[in-house]
Amino acid sequence: MGLLLGDTAPNFDIATNEGDINFHEWIGDNWVIFFSHPADYTPVCTTELGYTAKLKDEFAKRNAKAIALSVDSVEDHNGWIKDIEETQNVSMNFPIIADVDRTVAGLYQMIHPNADPKVTVRSVYVIDPNKKIRATFTYPPSAGRNFDEVLRLLDSLQLTDEYKVATPVNWTDGDDVIVVPSISDAEADTLFPAGYNKIKPYLRVTKQPNKVSESAE
Question: Which ranges in 55-102 belong to alpha helices (H)?
Answer without folding.
Answer: 56-61, 74-88
